[in-house]
Amino acid sequence: MTARTTSRVRRAAAAFVAVTVLPLALAACSDSGGGSDSGDGDRKDPVAAKAKTEAPAEAAEQGGPFGPACASVPKDGAGSFDGMAQAPVATAASANPVLSTLVTAVSEAGLVDTLNTAENITVFAPTNAAFAKLPKDALNRVLGDKEQLTKLLTYHVVGDRLAPADLRKGSFETLETSMLTTAGTVPSITVNDSAKVVCGDVRTANARVYLIDTVLMPPAK
Predict the structure, then answer these.
(1) Any bridge partners for residue 197, and if so which?
(2) Residue 177 Ramachandran class (φ > 0 left, ψ -120 to 50 alpha, else beta)
(3) What whole-number distance in Å separates Cα of residue 211 and Cα of residue 155?
(4) CA pair distance 116, 88, nearest whole angstrom
(5) What's the rounded mean pLDDT across residues 105-122?
(6) Contact 151, 162 (CB under 8 A)
(7) For position 12, what pLDDT does the model report?
(8) What is the total count of domains within the chain?
C-alpha cells in the first residue's frame, strides 16, 4: 500500500469515528447535564413534587373570595366585596343582589339584629337561585311560618368564623343546634353533600359568608 493510499484510509477512518461517536457523546451530555426541564428532579424528590401539587390549593384557600358566582357580586359600592367587609352580615347581604330572597327571609324571621350583633360567625347563604329550586308553595309556607323559617335560617349559621381550610372535612354545630358537614377544598367545597359553595370566603365585619346553590334542610327532630 502506498503512502498516499494509507493516508486516505486513515482520513476515512477518522471521519467514520467522528460521525459515529460524536452524536452519542452529545446525547450522553444532554441526559446527564440538567434535569431541570425534564421533571426528573420531582420524580427523585416526591416531597418536592407533592409540595408543588398542594401549593396552588393552599394559596387559593388563603386568597379571598372564590367560585363562579363571585362574578355576579358588584364590583364597587356597598354590595361589593370591599363594601360588604365594612358592614355586619345581615346589612352586608342586603346590599348584594344575589341574596335578596335570603334577606327577605331573614327580615321575616326577625333575625336581622341577631345576625348583625353576633360575633365571629359563618353563614352558608343560599342564593336566589337556591331558593328558586324550592317549589313556590313550599317556599311561601316556610316564609309564612316564623318558627319554621327561624329554624331553617339558623341551620345555615355556625357560631365560629370558618376559613376554607376548616371546611376540608368538618362537622359543625349550627345556631339551630343540629350539625352540618362540609367537605372538599377550594374551589370545590360542598355542604351536607348536597349544596355547592358557589362564592366562598366573603368577609363581612362579623362573619365569613359562603354562598351556596341549595337551601339546607335541618334534620327532623
Answers:
(1) 212
(2) left
(3) 14
(4) 5
(5) 96
(6) no
(7) 42
(8) 3
Give the closest residue to 152 by CA, choosing from 129, 169, 130, 168: 130
Query: What's the CA gap between 92 and 209, in Å, rounded?
Result: 10
With CA atoms as reference, report the closest residue to 200 among 124, 102, 129, 133: 124
Domain residues for the domain of 146 are 68-212
- Please determine, for residue 41, whether its predicted confidence score (pLDDT) is greater than 60: no
pLDDT digits (tens, 9 = 90+) for 129-171: 999 999 999 888 988 999 999 999 999 999 999 999 999 999 9
- The whole-number average pLDDT for the span 107-135 is 96
HSE-up of residue 32 (Cα within 13 Å, Cβ side): 6
For 185-205, the pLDDT digits (tens) are 999 999 999 999 999 999 999
Task: Give 189's strand partners.
Answer: 184
Alpha carbon distance 157, 147 (integer Å)? 16
How many Cα atoms are found within 13 Å in the side-chain-facing hemisphere of 150? 9
Q: Do 142 and 162 lie in a common domain?
A: yes
Q: Are 215 and 134 in contact (CB under 8 A)?
A: yes
pTM: 0.73
The residue count of the chain comes to 221
Cα gap 102→50, rounded to integer Å: 41
Give yes or no: residues 45 and 100 share one domain. no
Going along 14-85, which residue ranges are E strands?
none
Mean pLDDT of 62-69: 86
Grid cell in block for residue 165: 381550610
